[in-house]
Amino acid sequence: MGEKGYEGSGAHSAALEHAGADTPRYAIENPGLPPHRPRLADEDPRAAKRAERQVSVFFLISVIGTVLFFIGYFGVGQIGNDEDFGLLYLQNLLLGLGVALAMLGIGIGVVHWAKTLMPDHETVEERHEIRTEADRAAAQGMIADILDESQIKRRPLLRNTLIGAALLAPLPFIFAFRDLDNTDNFSDRAVNNFGPERLRHTMWAEGVRLVRDPTGSPIKASDVTLGSALHVIPDGLNDVEHGKLNEKAKAVVLVMRLDPSKVDITPGREDWNVDGIFAYSKVCTHVGCPIALYEQHTHHLLCPCHQSTFDLTQECKVIFGPASHALPQLPITVDDEGYLVARSDFTEPVGPVYWERGEQS
Fold it and tell me: One cellular component GO annotation, for this chain's record (predicted)?
C-alpha cells in the first residue's frame, strides 16, 4: 500500500515536471504598462495655464513666508525688550509661521507642478553602464529631455517664481544661525565667527552668590537639606535689563545635597562642593531643554523633553537618553556669612553639545 502510494506520488511529480518543460515559465504573462490616461491639463490649454498659475501661487506663498520671517526677526525683534512676553509670542509666531510657509510653499508647488504639468507617462529602461562617448552624449540628451518635459523653459512664470522662492527660502536659516552669537553688534558677530565661544561664559564668577529663582533670596548652606533640590540663578540677574532671558537661559543651575561619600568625585574637583551640596547646569546637553526632575532615591536628574537621564553620583554623567555629554558642574563654596557662592564660572560650555565644544575654559 505504501509502495503504491510512493510510486503514485513519484509519477505525479514526474508528470508535473514534464508538463512544466513544455509550458512558459510564468503562468501569467507580463501585462505591460497600463494605457496612458491623459490629464485635463494635457488636453486643455486653459487647464494647463490654470495649473501654472496655481503652482506660481504656491511659490509666492513661499516668498510671503520668508518675508513674514524677516518681519518677526527684524521688525518685532527691535520693539520692546526681552521681558515683553506679548512681543516674544508674536515674534515666535511670525518666525515659525514664516519658515513653515517658506518650506511648504516650495514643496507643495513642486509636487503640484509634477502632478499637473510634467509628463506622466511611464517608461521602462534597462540599467547599463555609461562608458563610451556616445553613451555620455545619450545621457546629456536625457537631461535635456528632462528639462524639456519639466517645461521650465516654456513657462517663465513658473521658472521665475521658483527661482525667487528658492533664493529666499534659505535666508531664515542663515540669519538664525548668524544670531547664535546673540551680539547686537554685527561686526562682533563677524569677528567671533558666530560666537560659539560665548557659550563658554555666563554671569557666574568668583564670589557671586547663589540665589533662589525667581525670588532672588540668597541661600545658606544650612538651608539645603539632604534630598532637596533648588532652582538657582546668579545674584544680580534680576537687575539685568537687556538680554535677561538669554543670560538666565545659560546661567540657571540646580543645587542638590546628598551624602558626599556616595559621589565618585573626579580628582581636582574635591573642593567644588560644600559638604555634599552640588551645583550643576540645568540646561540639558542634548538640545537645551531645562532639567526639571530630581529623583531623590536614585539621585538621577531627568530631562522631560527626550528622557535623557544624568546620574548625580557620577558627576551628572549620562546614563540614558540621547544626550552625549555630562551636565557642567558649577564650582561652589561659602562666603564669610555662610551663603553659597560660586568659585568661578563654569569651566566648560553649557547647553547642547556642538562641534567646537571642548573642556578648556
Answer: plasma membrane
